[in-house]
Design goal:
Blueprint: H1 3-21, H2 26-43, E1 53-57, H3 62-81, E2 87-93, H4 100-113, E3 121-127, E4 130-133, H5 142-157, H6 169-182, E5 191-194, H7 198-214, H8 230-237, E6 267-270, H9 279-289, H10 296-301, H11 309-323, H12 328-345, H13 350-361, H14 363-379, H15 385-393, H16 397-400, H17 403-410, H18 418-425, H19 432-442, H20 446-454
Parallel strand pairs: 1-2, 1-5, 2-3, 5-6
Antiparallel strand pairs: 3-4
Helix pairs in contact: 1-3, 2-3, 3-4, 6-7, 11-12, 11-15, 12-13, 13-14
Protein name: DUF4123 domain-containing protein
């Protein structure tokens, strides 16, 4: 890079910083100075800041985009005052549940902050355990899509039989793996930046432990609360979170394999206390500068990067209809009532309550919403309604303990084939039609259904960490008993 080009880019970065600071309130400018101080201390002094690299996980959510703007302001401010500034790695995990709008938000945020061509910033994404340059328009790979879908199904089927269906458990486990691996890729990073609140951190850690237990890990050690204990927990999980489900030769390695350090050396820098302005005050920075777009109802209620409000309501409806023997509308109605209680407890605008009632309380709108959600699930996780209902019953584990009940409720015409279904899962020869039915209704190949047949359901204490409700909106512990077949939130 020539001196002329360096000066031109320096001027560009200075203009980006000035425009960014123009959206900051006085409180945010104070928070920015505190962030710079915190980074300097973590680096061992400002004279060491040029050798300091931090990781910011970017999900495209409201708070992760806002936190990245604050972090970028710190990086450019230090650069304007000192010979060097810290290195920044921003990384995104691609899952089937990743919203295309979230990818667009990430791309617009990166463009507004002018980070794509900045040599001080690495812009990465992970698809099917492969580290790649971030590409907002590249679809998730076929292998990544199938792997994510299979992981979701396997974890869902081994849950405790008296516990709810946590459709988002795979998101917790995949994200934990991702954080651990991307932290040590390409010489590693010195620190992980977190903008999650202590409560959100606690929920993520509980979700990760629950998912890891279902995936066959013995989580017995004591870990520090929140993300202070994250890397110790990831060390306990080892290099493969899904080892219960796949033999060693079937495990997809992290790639490029030679680019990962053996030892992890990242620490935590918690900046949740620096997100000082309330949501209404952040909107100009988010929308006018970063170009952030979101469904306002979802943005207010869903703090989980894996959660979809329509999917949560849909699961509640299916659970009522097929498992409880009531109606789909009754299940969604119960979900709506709990949602409205929490929305009003949070003092959200009444127009949002009306929006929720129109989406989930109007019979005609609900029928349309159910159809749209079925399409969302088919295009996202790749699950049909029949496969979701199968997950609600989890009929294969414990040697098919609930298979007969599942057939009586959902597929009475298959009761006559019950002995053949058991034989198929035991590995005995059966008619091709029996195998095809198992694959169609489960969404899994017969060999994995047979593996589930030999597995015991997980003994997980799900009472406090598995709720259907919407995101991280409950205001007191009592709300955490509003359980159902879905899962609530983690991160912003």
């Amino acid at each position: 890079m020539t001196n002329i080009h360096e000066q031109a880019m320096s001027n560009v970065y200075q203009q980006v910083l000035l425009r960014l600071l123009g959206f900051f309130s006085r409180a945010e400018r104070t928070a920015l100075q505190l962030l710079i101080q915190r980074l300097g201390v973590a680096a061992g002094g400002m004279e060491q800041i040029g050798d300091f690299k931090v990781l910011a996980v970017q999900s495209g959510s409201r708070d992760s985009c806002y936190a990245l703007a604050l972090l970028r302001a710190a990086q450019l401010t230090i650069a304007s005052r000192a010979p060097a500034t810290f290195q920044l790695r921003v990384a995104t995990l691609r899952l089937n549940s990743t919203d295309p709008m979230a990818l667009e938000n990430i791309h617009r945020t990166y463009s507004a902050l002018f980070i794509h061509d900045d040599p001080r910033v690495e812009v990465l994404m992970v698809d099917n355990r492969e580290v790649l340059a971030f590409d907002p328009v590249a679809p998730i790979t076929k292998a990544g899509r199938e792997s994510d879908r299979t992981n979701l199904l396997m974890i869902g089927h081994v849950r405790s039989m008296d516990g709810p269906l946590d459709l988002w458990d795979n998101g917790y486990l995949a994200t934990g793996e991702f954080w651990g691996q991307i932290s040590r890729w390409n010489h590693g990073v010195d620190a992980l930046i977190s903008n999650d609140s202590p409560r959100q951190q606690k929920r993520f850690m509980e979700g990760l432990k629950r998912a890891a237990t279902k995936a066959g890990h013995n989580i017995t050690g004591h870990h520090e609360p929140g993300y202070e204990g994250l890397f110790a927990l990831l060390d306990d999980l080892g290099g493969h979170g899904y080892r219960r489900f796949y033999a060693e030769p079937d495990r997809q390695p992290w790639r490029p394999a030679d680019n990962f350090e053996t030892c992890r050396r990242a620490t935590l820098i918690d900046i949740h206390d620096m997100l000082v302005s309330n949501l209404e005050e952040r909107w100009p920075l988010l929308t006018e500068f970063l170009g952030f777009q979101a469904d306002e109802l979802a943005a207010q209620l869903c703090d989980n990067d894996y959660t979809s409000l329509p999917v949560c309501a849909h699961l509640r409806g299916l659970d009522a209809c097929f498992v409880q023997g009531r109606t789909y509308e009754e299940g969604v109605g119960e979900y709506l009532q709990r949602a409205l209680v929490m929305m009003r407890r949070k003092q959200l605008p009444e127009r949002l309550c009306e929006q929720a009632m129109e989406a989930f309380g109007n019979p005609k709108a609900l029928a349309e919403q159910r159809a749209r959600t079925a399409i969302e699930l088919q295009h996202g996780p790749g699950l049909s309604e029949a496969q979701l209902v199968c997950l609600l019953f989890a009929p294969f584990v414990d040697e098919g303990a609930t298979l007969e009940r599942f057939l009586r409720r959902c597929h009475p015409g298959m009761l006559v084939a019950l002995p053949d279904l058991h034989r198929a899962m035991q590995g005995h020869p059966v008619a091709d039609q029996i195998k095809q039915w198992l694959m169609d209704v489960s969404g899994l190949p017969v060999n994995l259904v047979s593996d589930l047949y030999r597995m015991k359901s997980a003994a997980v204490d799900e009472g406090r960490v598995a709720e259907l409700v919407i995101g991280d909106v409950s205001a007191d512990p009592a709300d955490e008993h509003l359980s159902g077949p879905g899962e609530s939130s983690t991160g912003g």
